[in-house]
From TrEMBL:
GO terms for cellular component: membrane. It is found in: Membrane. Keywords: Membrane, Transmembrane, Transmembrane helix. It comes from Lithospermum erythrorhizon. It is a multi-pass membrane protein. This is Protein-binding activity modulator. InterPro entries: TDE1/TMS. Belongs to the TDE1 family.
């Protein structure tokens, strides 16, 4: 009887959601995994904005922080360390959610209900976990800061594979036998536009960030090498054995040029190679807008990557998804948000807990620059490997067949 009652109430809740109820009713009645994604993303955004507020304005709001057990001085729980403390609470929350939802495959499991509902309990848990690190000793926060470097690297790798997977999926979809003739013009238009934008971006970077050839040799190297990588990706994709076309290297070129631009923009504002450096030192409206856009971009990237667990399956299953299967991998979703919390913390402190950051700035410093550059080079290596790997496997299989004969 109890099971039938629970089933009846669950069905009535779904009926209320499908009947066009308000977002608040979905939050209250839910178990709705699609709505849950946005709630988790909103929680992630709020907590990371809190980490930024602690970094920039914590000395005003937390005068009593010196009384906490983990803070010998107010400065220890503010600035970079304060951001790490908030980030630690966010990481623990999503890591606990990862452990508790890992392996959920059917919508009738209890873990599915834990992922998609119980919001009051989870919000309370999030608040408690954010407060708890402020009572932790500085050694714990320092250890988390070291681990966050690794976690942020994992997040960048996951995001990188997700982006490349989406680009290759789009290319395969457009060039399939079903859509090849219909999408031919669209593919050529998108490819041409991508290459034009890549060249414009490279030219503008030469103009903006290399005012002096002698003193800006590093920027010249970054930009020139990006141009070389663009040519390399195109050559490999156009090889007769690969036959990847122009669409994927064009879109990858846009991503690589963006990473190069982000790396150069992350250079310290004192650098003379950045012509707009004098404007970057002031808290003007352009700096604030850039900060807000950067934060929203990170949240959206974390959200979109979290529901893209399919691209990490080494063996693609062709079985049709059943009606009671979960719509996305819950464990992977929370793992991405956990590593995303580490990545956001690294951006706020520029990958260095002893680095002082100016207000309304994010991801500024030489460490940030080199992280972006290495990410760019790694993106090209992963993309080329995805093109070449099938050919290598075919060659090895043919060699094995010949040796058996």
């Amino acid at each position: 009887m109890q099971g039938s009652t629970t089933s009846t109430s669950t069905n009535s809740n779904y009926a209320k959601i499908k009947a066009g109820s308000s977002w608040f009713d979905q939050f209250r009645y839910g178990s709705n995994p699609w709505m849950a994604r946005y709630v988790y993303a909103m929680m992630f955004f709020i907590v990371n904005m809190l980490a930024w507020a602690v970094r920039d304005y914590g000395h005003i709001a937390f005068k009593e922080m010196e009384r906490l057990n983990g803070c010998k001085e107010v400065k220890e729980c503010l600035g970079a360390e304060g951001s790490l403390r908030v980030s630690l609470g966010c990481f623990i929350f999503y890591f606990v959610m990862f452990l508790s939802t890992l392996g959920t495959s059917k919508s009738n499991q209890r873990r599915e209900s834990w992922h998609s509902s119980w919001w009051f309990a989870k919000v309370t848990m999030m608040i408690a976990l954010i407060v708890m690190p402020f009572f932790s000793p500085p050694e714990v926060i320092s250890l988390y800061g070291d681990l966050a470097h690794f976690g942020a690297g994992v997040f960048l790798l996951i995001q990188l594979i997700s982006v490349i997977s989406f680009i290759t999926w789009l290319s395969d979809c457009c060039q399939s036998e079903k859509n090849a003739d219909r999408c031919y013009v669209h593919v050529m238009l998108i490819s041409t536009t991508s290459y034009v934008l890549c060249l414009i971006g490279i030219i503008m970077m030469y103009i903006w960030y290399t005012p002096d050839i002698l003193s800006c040799r590093l920027n010249i190297f970054f930009i020139t090498w990006t141009l070389v990588l663009l040519q390399l990706m195109t050559s490999v994709s156009r090889h007769p054995k690969v036959n990847g076309g122009f669409l994927t290297p064009g879109l990858m070129g846009l991503y690589v040029v963006f990473l190069c631009w982000s790396a150069i923009r992350s250079e310290p504002p004192e650098e003379m190679c950045i012509r707009e450096a004098e404007h970057a030192t002031k808290e003007d409206w352009l700096t604030i807008i850039s900060f807000v856009v950067a934060v929203l971009t990170i949240v959206i990237a974390t959200f979109s990557t979290g529901i893209d667990s399919q691209c990490f399956q080494f063996r693609k299953d062709n079985d049709k998804q059943e009606e009671d299967d979960v719509p996305y991998g819950y464990g992977f979703f929370h793992l991405v948000f956990a590593t995303g919390a580490m990545y956001f913390a690294m951006l706020l402190i520029s990958w260095n807990s002893h680095h002082s950051m100016k207000k309304w700035t994010i991801d500024v410093g030489w460490t940030s620059t080199w992280v972006r550059i290495v990410n760019e080079w790694l993106a090209v290596c992963v993309y080329i490997w995805m093109l070449v790997a099938p050919i290598i496997r075919k060659w090895k299989s043919s060699q094995t067949g010949e040796s058996r004969v």
